Task: structure prediction
Amino acid sequence: MPTPSAVSNGLTGLVDLLQTTPEFRRLIETLSSGKSASVDGAWGSACALASSALSRRCPGTLLVVLSRLSDVDDYAQDIQAFLDVEPMIFPAWETLPDEHTLGDHVFGQRLRCLRELESDHPPKIIVTALPALMQPVPAKSMRESAVKAFHVDQEIDLEQLTDWLVENDFVRVSAIEQPGEFAIHGGIIDLYSPDALNPIRIELFGDQIESMRVFDLASQRKLKDLQTATISILKPVNMNPENERDLDQSHLANLVESLPAGSWVAFSDLSELMDEAKRYLERLGHPVGLYSPRATLAECAKFPSVTITAIGMSSAELEIRLRSEAIERFAGARNQVLKELSQLLTPDERVILACHNEGERQRLIELIEQDHPSLLPSMSFPVGVISKGFRLIEHRLLVLSDHELFDRREVRVGGKKANIETRAIDSFL
Result:
């Protein structure tokens, strides 16, 4: 039977529950010793649950590498539900742009990931896909040379600053809306650096910086005072040069090189990585300058790694089984769905039904109280979003989301498991 804390703490309690198991403790010991491991039987969002639990114990950053770019947002959403912390996403261009602008949102997010990884407080978890890692990032020397620093009490020439910003492709506007823009009103300068999550406001007293602060673009409210600030003028490297020799490899690097000491890499379904990477390269027409899938995995192999998958086992030093089950489809009207749910539960089994907001939570409680009040004692209704439900067999827990239960997405336990053997990362190198 699930522990009271696991149910009362909702989705975040599942992370605590998973960490108490002997198998998970063995997994942490294996990764901490620098070895590789494999977690089998992670169905649905249980894969993100395992990653969330690993990030709690990882000494550095847990880099989660998925096969498909289209899965990244849902996976990150699941992790946010389990950890109650928004994970950082390292994105990729679906197709490499022909023109590169300073305000490229994908490039800005990639720069932010690099900056955070190299900071004194790197993120605990980053979610990405193999194609994103195959796309190079600017080398650290390039990033460090492409910034302009500001500090309080610094004297600046406003006309020279304006010319410098325009020369480096910043766009002057009346009110900034996106990265790569700046606005000047009297002695107030608003700057939105390409690598910044929020813009900064510099206030001058004469030619001297009197104050600086980060502010919210929508509300214009101050978020934080600053004593120093930097503005990046870096633009994406052209990955479609007319001549391959025009691409200077010394200016490029791989994100994995910036991972802090003590980091681990978690692969979701390693067996699909190579096939998806090859399809991605085919869609792009095999452009020059990208790292090959093998070279990218070789960089990842420098860190302890774990493969988390639903089907099959790898040849890692440690192989454990999560013992979860997939959820298939409910069908029928609301009353029929709730009846089917009550029949699905085994004795002493509990249901955690994730609700995407508080209003939906209250509505579902009222519906179940009206139509199937016998279900209520077995259910908890945390606010959160998970993409795919699952059952934790050992802990007698069924984890579902409100959109699955009433929007007819995958929701009943069962289904045949294909006998597919996954391979360890070394098999691809």
